[in-house]
Amino acid sequence: MPMADWLRGGRNREKVRDDAAQWVKCPSCGEVLYRPDLSANLDVCVRCSHHFRMHAHDRILSLIDGDFEEIARGILPADPLSWTDKKSYPQKLAADAAKSGMDEAVLCGFGSIGGYELALGVMDFHFRGGTMGSVVGERLTRLIEAATERGLPCAIFTASGGARMEEGMLALMQMAKTTAAVVRLKASGQPFLTVLTDPTTGGVSASFAFQADVILAERNAMIGFAGRRVIEQTIRQRLPDRFQTAEFLLERGHIDGVVDRPNLKPTLERLLGYARAGMQRRKRAELSA
Amino acid sequence: MNPLLEREKGLLELERRIEDLRSANEGQRIDMSAEIASLESKYRQLLAEVFGSLSPWEKVHMARHPRRPTTLGYIAGLDAFDELHGDRMFRDDPAIVGGFARLGGHSIVAIGQQRGRDMKENLARNFGMSTPEGYRKGERLALLAQRFNLPLVTFVDTKGADPGILSEEHAQSEAIAASLEVFAALRVPTLCVVIGEGGSGGALALAIADRVLMLEHSVYSVASPEGCAAILWGDASKADEAAAHLKLTASDLRGFGIVDEVIPEPLGGAHRDAAATVTRVLDRIGAVLDLLESFSLPDLLNARYEKYRRLGSWRDSLATDGAP
Ligand SMILES: [Zn+2]
């Protein structure tokens, strides 16, 4: 689908914000930013380079050359546990859908970045904190399987509070399901890349996020398995501010690199270029054999 | 608060009365055996009543019972066990034990999460919460099973992965993620038994298997009830409420297709007859291994993929249009 139509069907469903909401204060430096300017700058603060959390549609728009062929968009959440606490699970889902313009916490599809075709999955923290339930697991599994079938690299942008409690063990099992698909993708020879964005924790962090061949993170993203509060309660002391930041993980050797958002697209292009070079070598070797 | 204590009160009182009567009966001329038999029958009836209708939160406490058999209890029942240690990198995590073993006619590799049965043991075993080194040890032993071409049996018994500073610094996420990859594609038959509490990704790291068995009063959950209550409501003390929501019992999970077989426990729970529980579980492991050995490896790997591929619950709003 042409990008403009796709966006109209997706992101633009979001309610038009009122005038007051056109201004947003940078949580890092305090600068008051005009939202259209912020959007034009990839949701990065012009003064201090603070990276705001990005909507999945905006992310895809910022990366993809031309059109985006979305897959699995008809896959929508059910309520397997008939969960109700203060609100029912379907009510929570409907409220987040109205607020975020998303119908689940991930968008998946095919497109090109700098001429390199790939399978792209982008998670969105604005829907249920990016938590992984059956729909996130199913959409991503279909994406990874389709990448394997089409012989294309796969990249996933993560943003997640972990497994979605309201789907119980079925949510946990999405870690196993996506893992199995990742194993087949890798075995087929296709590269798997992840970009960890703020925040990436729990069941997403402990599955496909850290199974990639190359793992990048956005500046200052919070990344970890256990949540900060849980660790602080366990050890009964405050954690240093830098703990579980992308930069901290880079020092500890957990990730390949920390990238500023404006450099992401060119970085991905170069990585996809190396991947293609390797594929071409393989093809040449097969031909001469 | 342990809700089991309240429910067990009546049972303990009956136990005491039966015991008193027995000792009074000895050396007395009046025969009280009829009265004892009647009390014993009442006791069995109450036992069935209490343990036939446990709430999910009560089951959590059954699963955590200090006298419930642990991984080492099952290992002690094996015909042979040669423990192997360490992750080859940093340390030997005592919260995960494993090694070569023999069970019936099968040579296997066995790995399990080991919690303590008292405070001293729990401190040594970190309450069964594994660090990244433990998962790397588990992953290494799983690959060893593949290297030796032996079936792999795992025992799950953990609240979850260790939530500590060092575990984060040593890449807990990567350790679990890597373990999942190895278990998903391991080229030998794999069998997992949830023997106590299975909590979150920390449990799943050892739990992807061709067959997942679960003891009747075990629980297996996306997060511990305390953790879930803290995440959703910022209040870990609402764990009982979370337990009721989470559908974490063996029969719930059998219904979702996440668990393949529920192993019944002795009346009153595994801890009331640990020896019988261990025997029953090991018998089932032997029988399931016999079954798994009858499949070819490609069939086994395909079936394992399909089994996890199917898990989930969603609706396809475009299905009628034939759209993807
Ligand atoms: Zn700023």
UniProtKB/TrEMBL annotation, chain A:
Coarse class of the protein's main subcellular location: cytoplasm
UniProt subcellular location: Cytoplasm
Coiled coil spans: none
InterPro entries assigned to the protein according to its UniProt record, in alphabetical order: AcCoA_carboxyl_beta, Acetyl_CoA_COase_Trfase_b_su, ClpP/crotonase-like_dom_sf, COA_CT_N, Znf-ACC
SUPFAM superfamilies xref list: ClpP/crotonase
Enzyme Commission (EC) number: 6.4.1.2
Enzyme category, top tier: ligase
A Pfam family that the UniProt record links to this protein: Zn_ribbon_ACC
Keyword Transit peptide annotated: no
GO molecular function, one term: zinc ion binding
Keyword Transferase: yes
Keywords, ordered alphabetically: ATP-binding, Fatty acid biosynthesis, Fatty acid metabolism, Ligase, Lipid biosynthesis, Lipid metabolism, Metal-binding, Nucleotide-binding, Transferase, Zinc, Zinc-finger
Domain CoA carboxyltransferase N-terminal, first and last residues per copy: 22-289
GO CC terms, sorted: acetyl-CoA carboxylase complex
Any single biological process term in GO: fatty acid biosynthetic process
PROSITE patterns assigned to the protein according to its UniProt record, in alphabetical order: COA_CT_NTER (PS50980)
Cross-referenced NCBIfam families: accD
PANTHER family: ACETYL-COENZYME A CARBOXYLASE CARBOXYL TRANSFERASE SUBUNIT BETA, CHLOROPLASTIC (PTHR42995:SF5)
Protein's recorded name: Acetyl-coenzyme A carboxylase carboxyl transferase subunit beta (ACCase beta chain)
Native species: mine drainage metagenome
